[in-house]
């Protein structure tokens, strides 16, 4: 660790957090101790914190106060994690419908937040300083798994207007002190990619953070031009906000000469999980419970994929209890080689509504097509867009381009999944454009399922 990193991580950043009323340092130290606990001890901690949270929620949150009374529930009835099933699954629509009845009475000092609404369902919500502190602490802990720390040089390749518009003068000075540089991820054409590569070479970051689709495009551009990025001392690339495809992980790690760590989280649900160097996508279990449910909101067998539902144990101010994230994935019940007792996620499959509508009206999840396309050698990116019930367009970026045999197999696979009545248009492109917010969606259905 460099002297400047030691100063920032041990002094400047803790001071910054204390001035904001956060307890991130104390939380991080506690998390770094509890991450080595066995799974049963972590589960007991979750139950203990769940009962404490429900005592407050049942008393102070009008919606849950009515629910507990109507169903005859008491916090003491929640003796195991399985007892969470006594509560209903919640989502953005339910929370919006309750209005102020979702806020805890007497809550003060809350920070207003809003999801981007990229799924078509924006949500305004409120976070306490303790909840924010826990998210910061969990992310800080997971960053240190990779032998990097706050104060090490960090380059952030990002496309969210929320962060980019927040780059005011005060934040810019803070980022300089922390040695964090924000690079907008929009307009990543040839010259734009060249500018990012030049910034990486000049800045020599120890870690990168950004969309995997954007980082992979940078890596492919550098490889094409023979520009080395694996001699800069980059330790890790943290990827988030999109499903990390194998082809993206491979080119990022190879060209940058670093580890690639997947991250899963959301503004509302919190910092849910990040990958350790041993490959385990560990859940922040000390203050989060993750369930995997089927379409009927029943638990799926261990290892099977389903809807990811999150319970945040950070406080009653604006509760997220059994909150549907809108994503699909699975839980891995096997121990991680790293030795941490934290549970792990596996098989993150992206948004639950990333799918296509078959000719007969059946919904086909996008993962069926994702696995097909991964077989293509040289695959860089793809996007499947259903414009009408009978019209699907597939954009493919690959080097070398797919041959006629692969295209024929792909058409047959789509016809088998959606019906022969659905026309498939394959379009070869140099690059697949991202969405307006900078993220890359693999499957987009523009057909009303109703």
UniProtKB/TrEMBL annotation:
Keywords assigned: Ligase
Lineage: superkingdom: Bacteria
Which parts of the chain are coiled coil? none
Transmembrane spans: none
Looking up InterPro entries in the UniProt record yields: ANL_N_sf (IPR042099), CapK_Type1_Caps_Biosynth (IPR053158)
GO MF, one annotated term? ligase activity
Q: What is this protein called?
A: CoA ligase
Protein's organism: Alkalilimnicola ehrlichii (strain ATCC BAA-1101 / DSM 17681 / MLHE-1)
**What's the source species' lineage?**
Bacteria, Pseudomonadati, Pseudomonadota, Gammaproteobacteria, Chromatiales
């Amino acid at each position: 660790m460099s002297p400047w990193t030691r100063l920032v991580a041990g002094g400047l950043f803790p001071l910054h957090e204390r001035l904001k009323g956060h307890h991130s340092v104390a939380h991080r130290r506690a998390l770094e101790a509890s991450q080595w606990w066995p799974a049963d001890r972590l589960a007991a901690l979750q139950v203990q914190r769940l009962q404490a949270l429900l005592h407050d929620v049942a008393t102070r949150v009008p919606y849950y106060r009515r629910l507990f009374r109507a169903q005859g529930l008491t916090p003491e009835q929640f003796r195991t994690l399985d007892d969470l099933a006594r509560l209903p699954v919640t989502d953005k629509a339910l929370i919006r419908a309750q209005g102020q009845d979702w806020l805890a009475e007497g809550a003060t000092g809350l920070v207003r937040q809003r999801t981007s609404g990229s799924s078509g369902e924006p949500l305004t919500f409120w976070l306490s300083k303790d909840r924010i502190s826990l998210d910061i602490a969990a992310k800080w802990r997971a960053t240190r798994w990779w032998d990097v720390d706050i104060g090490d040089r960090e380059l952030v390749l990002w496309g969210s207007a929320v962060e980019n518009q927040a780059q005011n003068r005060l934040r810019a000075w803070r980022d300089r002190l922390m040695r964090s540089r924000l690079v907008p991820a929009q307009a990543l054409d040839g010259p734009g990619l060249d500018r990012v590569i030049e910034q990486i070479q000049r800045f020599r970051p120890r870690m990168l953070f950004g969309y995997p689709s954007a980082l992979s495009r940078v890596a492919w551009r550098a490889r094409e031009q023979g520009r080395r990025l694996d001699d800069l001392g980059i330790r890790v690339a943290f990827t988030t906000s999109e499903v990390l495809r194998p082809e993206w992980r491979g080119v990022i790690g190879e060209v940058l000469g670093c580890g690639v760590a997947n991250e899963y989280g959301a503004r509302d649900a919190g910092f849910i999980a990040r990958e350790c160097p041993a490959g385990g996508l560990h859940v922040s279990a000390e203050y989060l419970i993750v369930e995997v449910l089927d379409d009927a909101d029943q638990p799926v067998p261990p290892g099977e994929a389903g809807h990811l539902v999150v319970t945040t144990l950070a406080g009653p101010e604006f509760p997220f209890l059994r909150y549907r994230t809108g994503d699909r994935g699975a839980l891995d019940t096997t121990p991680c080689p790293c030795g941490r007792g934290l549970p792990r996620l596996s098989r993150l499959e992206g948004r639950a509504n990333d799918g296509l509508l078959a000719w007969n009206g059946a919904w086909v999840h996008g993962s069926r097509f994702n696995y097909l396309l991964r077989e293509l050698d040289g695959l860089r990116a793809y996007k499947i867009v259903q414009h009408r019930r009978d019209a699907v367009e597939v954009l493919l970026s690959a080097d070398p381009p797919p041959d006629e045999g692969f295209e024929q197999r792909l058409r047959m696979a789509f016809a088998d999944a959606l019906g022969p009545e659905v026309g498939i248009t394959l379009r070869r492109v140099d690059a697949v454009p991202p969405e307006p917010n900078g993220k890359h969606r693999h499957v987009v259905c523009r057909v009303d399922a109703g």
